[in-house]
Amino acid sequence: MRVPISHSIGKDEVRRRLQSRSHEIGKYVPGGMADVTTSWPHEDRMDLQVKAMGQGIDGCVIIEEDQLIFEVNLPPALSFFEPMVASAIRQQGQKLIEAK
What we know:
This is Polyhydroxyalkanoic acid synthase. This protein is α+β, with helices and mostly antiparallel strands.
């Protein structure tokens, strides 16, 4: 599943905000009890591993000049949640890059 989120703050600022706030991602997962691990294999890509409610989900965030693209690999057992997950990513992903 791919979920794009538009922004107008440039790649460098998005990267800075994601790096400084990546520890907050777990609280945005429904239930707020997720274990989230992030890594940066490239300056414009943050990989994610999310473990919550007995499930593991892998994904990444690709930073582009005018949008973020969240790519999430939902297991088949959770595929019926895709519309809800996409909506949550759009809403919560925007919060991650808002100025504080």
